[in-house]
What we know:
The structure holds 2 protein chains of 2 kinds.
Chain A: E1 4-13, E2 16-26, E3 31-35, H1 42-50, E4 57-62, E5 65-66, E6 77-80, H2 92-102, H3 107-120, H4 136-149, E7 154-158, H5 166-183, E8 186-191, H6 194-200, E9 203-208, E10 211-216, H7 218-223, H8 228-233, E11 238-246, E12 251-254, E13 257-260, E14 273-278, E15 284-285, E16 293-304, E17 308-315, E18 318-325, E19 338-343, E20 349-351
Parallel strand pairs in A: 3-8, 3-9, 6-7, 7-8
Antiparallel strand pairs in A: 1-2, 1-4, 4-5, 9-10, 11-12, 11-14, 12-13, 14-20, 15-19, 16-17, 16-19, 17-18
Helix pairs in contact in A: 2-3, 2-4, 3-4
Chain B: H1 2-30, H2 41-48, H3 50-83, H4 89-101, H5 104-115, H6 127-155, H7 159-168, H8 173-184, H9 186-202, H10 205-209, H11 215-225, H12 229-254
Helix pairs in contact in B: 1-12, 2-12, 3-6, 3-9, 4-6, 6-9, 7-8, 9-12, 11-12
Bound molecules: adenosine-5'-triphosphate (ATP) and magnesium ion (MG).
Residues 13, 16, 18, 36, 38-44, 192 of chain A line the site of adenosine-5'-triphosphate (ATP).
Amino acid sequence: MAFLTLTAIAKRFGQNTVVHGFDLAVERGEFISLLGPSGCGKTTVLRMIAGFETPSAGTIMIDGRDVTYKRPAERNVGMVFQAYALFPNMNVADNIAFGMKVAKRPKAEIDARVTEMLELISLPDLAARYPYQLSGGQQQRVALARALAVKPQVLLLDEPLSALDAKIRVSLREEIRALQRELGITTIFVTHDQEEALSMSDRVVVMHQGRVEQIGTPHAIYNTPKTRFAASFVGTLNMLDAEIKDASAGLIIVEGQTLRIANGTPGAPNGSRCTVALRPEALAIGPARPGDNVLSCTIEDVQFLGAIVRVKARCGAHILSVDTFNQAGQPAWARGDQVEIHFAPEHLVVLD
Amino acid sequence: MRESRIGAWIAFGIGALYFILPLIATFEFSLRMKRGEYSFEAYRVVFADPRFQASFTYSVGQALATIFVGIALVVPTAYWVRLRAPQFRPIVEFITLLPLVIPAIVIVFGYLRIFNSSSLIPLTDTNLGTDALLMFGYVTLALPYLYRAVDTGLQAIDVRTLTESAESLGANAFTILTRVILPNIRPALLSGAFLTFAIVIGEFTFAALLNRPAFGPYLQLLGANRAYEPSALAIMAFLVTWACMGLMQLASRGLRLPTTDTR
Ligand SMILES: Nc1ncnc2c1ncn2[C@@H]1O[C@H](COP(=O)(O)OP(=O)(O)OP(=O)(O)O)[C@@H](O)[C@H]1O
Ligand SMILES: [Mg+2]
């Protein structure tokens, strides 16, 4: 049995159902990200785990205990919000101590724990500062320390980095991940930033319109997306309309050119249509290796991005995006050039 | 541009005269108790009057009790409406505005009907009961101001996020209100409190009709029977009110906690 399980969770606000049949099993110590576009219900799921919303259906179990209808204060779940969550009337030390004071811990224990937490977030000198005297990144670290000080069983973070600027965002996410590993705390992290989700998580939950689209490791989510939405939301993607030529042999036709699929043959009859996806970085221009798929295209545009050259190539009605590394001796492609784009059959993903 | 500036100054001058002249005249008059010289004799007489001391003390007590009960009533209500029942907001705002619309004399007659000696809750049977009734009446009078002050204070902080942070750290509603919400709306509370104080100190209708020895009826009594002392009292009442307003300013400026905005 997993440490934290959500079973068939649904949430309705009036007539509006914003979360449908949500299932998730999180192992102890795992770092899970909920990833999806704005309004897909990430925050709502997190708030149900924290106890700020009650599910309209389904159950939530933490460590074998049913907490579905428990109040937030009874759940032992820590929460870090997007911003503005530190108590403005208390200094850093009092903020961190709040949960333990509420629990009436002895003063010596509180003081020791506050010092320990300040060390942990590498802000040992800021105990006496007030929130308004801290930078946004420092505030979020204190918020993290405050949530962790009471030793919660589960840590929830709702876009804790989105109010910060890009540089701090990257360094703080590495810090959060390192801290999470050190403490081994089960963590759910909400974000709409795919880079954040992919770089930090053990597993990513891709959400769309209140439903789980796909749950998997960052590697699996990126390389073998299961649905059209998961494929298009995570990373850039070329999507091609295809006709199934021979399902058993894994042959499809795109723009009159026959391609071979290595894994996941379409479960539809010959002659029907399907959608296949290709990552830009899986494509290459030039002489094909044996066994590769080949598409003849015309170059529409070439963008030089330094280490990467991004080529837009037209293939019938489709425009393919091709990312190649900038290598010496590579021909300088120009608009209107006829080229052959090739890729291994494994890179063709058939979408549901 | 110049003309409009001059017009503005004239308007301001007229307004100032309208406001200040009577005040100066009153002050001047209050100094003339002793024939042929200016003196603070009228003030001395007033301060020496035991009824002044008694009624002023009584009203200060009433004001403090009103502030305490008013805050205990208004803060949880405004907090609850903001956090859990925003749909009731218009209704609550309407109710808190009613005391401005309904004349005090109507309110007090209503109270007397409900709480008289032959009613279910005969508050007017004892002095203490009547004091309590008067205090509740003052809470009603102060409601529009107190509610707005508190609500504005709540608007300035992120009530939901602060509440939920505290909740997930194990705090109950009482702890959240007293340790998180109240300290962060202190400036608003203080300005509401001073406003309440000023209202209660000068109130006449309730105290007179309930026949309690408050400062308002004393003012009226003195005004009807004496010449110089009422002027001295009026000036003192002004000073108390202005002190309250000054403290309100201080409260909302000096004690305001800097915002935590870091975006
Ligand atoms: N209290 C509420 N009452 C009514 N509708 C709500 C409420 N809270 C959320 N919703 C709706 O539920 C949907 C999901 O909201 P939610 O905040 O979970 O999205 P999100 O994925 O966190 O989005 P974002 O990335 O913008 O934060 C939205 O359409 C929102 O309008
Ligand atoms: Mg959200």
